[in-house]
Amino acid sequence: MDLYIYYKVRDADAAALHSAVAAMQAQLAEQFAVSSELKRRPEADDGVQTWMEIYPAAPGNFAGTLAAAVDRAGLSQWIVGARHLEAFVDVVPCA
Q1: CB 38, CB 21: distance < 8 Å
Q2: 94: in domain
Q3: Helix (H/G/I), strand (E/B), else coil: 92
Q4: How far is residue 27's CA from residue 39's CA, in Å, rounded to a whole number?
C-alpha cells in the first residue's frame, strides 16, 4: 500500500517543518525500513504551501505508526489545518 499525506504550511514555517519532517522520516526509515519522499507544490497561495509526504510500499499497519511519529515530532505546530491521508494499492489485472 502506498500512503500519500498532504497538508498546508506557511512560508514562514517551511524551514522548521522541513527539518522536523526530514528527521521523522529518517527515524521511520531506520526503525521500520520504509522509504519516503517529501514534495511540495511549486507555487504558494497567499503565503501558504501545499506539501506531500509519500510512503511507497508501506506495511498495512503503517498509518498508525506514522500518526504516532507525527505526534512525537510535533508537526502540528507548523501545519495549517489537517493532514489528509490517502492510501492506494496496486491495480491487479482482472481474471
Answers
A1: yes
A2: no
A3: coil
A4: 18
Whole-model pTM: value is 0.92
To which residue does cell 517529501 refer? Answer: 38
Number of domains composing the chain: 1
pLDDT of residue 94: 85
CB 3 within 8 A of CB 85: yes
Alpha-carbon distance of 65 to 62, in angstroms, equals 5
Question: Is residue 67 one of the residues assigned to a domain?
Answer: yes
Q: Residue 87 and residue 56: Cα distance in Å, rounded? A: 10
Q: Which domain, by its residues, includes 68?
A: 2-88
Tell me the CATH number at 12. 3.30.70.100
The model's pLDDT over 22-46, given as tens digits with 9 standing for 90+, comes to 999 999 999 999 999 999 999 999 9
